[in-house]
Amino acid sequence: MANDQFDTPLFDGEDNKHQSARALAEAALRAEEEGDQEKAEQLFRQAEAADPSALESVLLERRSEHPGFSPQPPSSDEDVAAISRTMTPERHSPPPEAIDENY
Fold this sequence. Notes:
Elements: H1 14-34, H2 37-50, H3 52-65, H4 77-83
Helix pairs in contact: 1-2, 1-3, 2-3
């Protein structure tokens, strides 16, 4: 695969950090297109750690290259549950009659 020869440039200041993150994000997109989701996720994480704004730029550029693309909204309750967090309180509040000025 073409992505196997990717070497991260040495850190040489903010400009190189940004360029490194962009290169990682672009490599992640190529890996994703090739079907290697695990490698793509790893590269996306590295790009985000290096420079989140560079990752965002690459993703926005890719989105503008494909103007008809828009993510599909969740179509079922199960899909929504899969991407949502359920909050369960550890402690319940006291009943209203137990609350006074010293509470």
